[in-house]
Design a protein that fits this description.
disordered N terminus, 6 strands, alpha+beta, 4 helices
Length: 181
């Protein structure tokens, strides 16, 4: 997805159609958005790779996300131009969601080439986060549909990187993650 199309989707173009991963949302332009906030002044665009791009977030969206650190990046796939390239499992605050039923992250129930690509890109994002934290940075990530920051729930879900199996990590809608060593 090109930059212009991404801009149109984020701004609500009348040309937009159903989002492939959220078909229930008819007529509403949808794009999964992931922001990564850190206190590290390191330019994260230097970590572009493995299908993942790090771009400074638009200031108005960064403010709307209310993340606690000054350096906020819009993290997207280099093909899609949005964060739909990552593994994610919907809203964990749905009472029937397996995230809470299983006490945390779980092995993906999906399979196929698209899933393998999503997992590779998610693993790369997690690797960048892990490196930042290992170097002493504070890091949070926030995930919402189409810039719907008011739906972002507090407090952040703490992710202990030292105990996390990276192959079961996934992002969730309307959730902010706080990463710890």
């Amino acid at each position: 997805m090109g930059t212009v199309l991404r801009f149109l989707l984020k701004r609500g173009s009348p040309k937009s159609s159903l989002h492939p991963k959220n078909p229930a949302k008819t007529g509403i332009p949808m794009c999964f958005t992931v922001f990564l906030a850190t206190d590290s002044p390191t330019d994260l665009s230097l970590h572009d790779g493995q299908g993942v791009l790090f771009r400074p977030a638009e200031p108005d969206e960064a403010r709307a996300a209310k993340l606690p650190y000054p350096y906020v990046y819009d993290v997207a796939g280099d093909k899609e131009g949005c964060a739909c390239c990552f593994d994610f499992y919907g809203d964990p605050y749905d009472s029937s969601h397996p995230f809470w039923d299983n006490g945390g992250f779980r092995q993906p129930a999906k399979s196929g080439e698209e899933t393998a690509q999503e997992q590779r890109e998610t693993l790369y994002l997690l690797d960048v986060i892990r490196r930042l934290v290992q170097n002493g940075a504070k890091v949070q990530a926030a995930c919402v549909w189409s810039g719907n920051w008011p739906q972002l729930r507090k407090p952040a879900v703490e992710v202990a990187l030292h105990t996390l199996n990276p192959h079961v990590f996934a992002l969730f809608e309307n959730v902010r993650f706080k990463f710890a060593a």
